[in-house]
Amino acid sequence: MTETAPAPANDTGHKMSAKNVNVFYGSTQAIRDVSIDIDMDHVTAFIGPSGCGKSTFLRTLNRMNDTVASARVEGDIRLDGEDIYSPSMDVVQLRARVGMVFQKPNPFPKSIYENVAYGPRIHGLAASKADMDGIVERSLKRAGLWEEVKDRLSDSGTALSGGQQQRLCIARAIAVDPEVILMDEPCSALDPIATAKIEELIHELRGRYAIVIVTHNMQQAARVSQRTAFFHLGTLVEYGVTDDIFTNPRQERTKDYITGRYG
Ligand SMILES: Nc1ncnc2c1ncn2[C@@H]1O[C@H](COP(=O)(O)OP(=O)(O)OP(=O)(O)O)[C@@H](O)[C@H]1O
């Protein structure tokens, strides 16, 4: 099937829609008037030079910036049409629906089992021990980690290798049944083999969730994503089908970046 260009932000039917988003840290503006749509069954990559605002914008999508005292977000961000910055939005629930995987794997200092079971327990997703066992197994399977850990679920999550820890963090995000998974440079602390496994996993997860990945690595963006958004100096310069962005960028700044002229 031929990919079509993303529709404008005011169209309905998108998993997430951000419109005219500005983000400030104190009086410094980090994001300027960004509008973008995020769709199911797609991996969307955010690329751009260091400091351009990729992570800041990513964190607006599940209100992670709420945890930064100086951060202020303006604009409209919707999940299935619902304003995620509305006072009635339950932020704990939002972060389960829009899960996040960080740059540095950050398992809890608990067992592998508990790392995955923690979220479902908080959200009351399992009625019995058997239910919970099922959720843990399914999540670890989806994260491609089950075969490696099924005989040692009570070992500490922090004793796993870096790549396994990152897949454990993905299992933890999956366990609460998210709709969107945000990944902030999930491979930057991993070696090439562990990176390849995560990329393969992203490919497999794509059909189930909307995935947004921040990456410094343009080859990675080209390999894993169907849509690419290029950020520069806090603005969204260009957003489109990944192949188009990499082979036929419309903006000079995008072209300069992908050809390595800066960044
Ligand atoms: N907690 C913070 N307090 C103040 N300023 C911040 C904070 N986090 C980020 N910034 C600033 O906001 C701008 C965007 O940073 P951000 O981390 O979002 O960029 P990025 O594109 O993800 O960069 P990198 O690729 O280096 O991670 C930068 O100027 C940065 O210094």
Short descriptors:
Rossmann fold, AAA+_ATPase, 263 residues, single chain, globular, binds adenosine-5'-triphosphate, ABC_transporter-like_ATP-bd, six-stranded mixed sheet, phosphate transport, four-stranded antiparallel sheet, Phosphate ABC transporter ATP-binding protein PstB, transport, 10 helices, alpha/beta
Instruction: Find the CATH superfamily.
Output: P-loop containing nucleotide triphosphate hydrolases
Small-molecule components bound = adenosine-5'-triphosphate
What is the quaternary state of this protein? single chain
Number of strands: 10
Backbone structural class: alpha/beta
Largest β-sheet summary: 6 strands, mixed
Structural Rg: 18 Å
Order of helices and strands: EEEHEEHEHHHHEHEHEEHH
Distance between the termini: 33 Å
Q: Which consecutive residue ranges, at least 5 long each, have pLDDT under 50?
A: 7-11
Number of helices: 10
**Percent of residues in β-strands:** 15-25%
CATH topology: Rossmann fold
Principal-axes geometry comes out as globular
Helix content: 25-40%
Average residue pLDDT = 93
Q: How are strands sequenced across the largest beta sheet?
A: 6-7-8-3-9-10
CATH architecture: 3-Layer(aba) Sandwich
CATH structural class: Alpha Beta
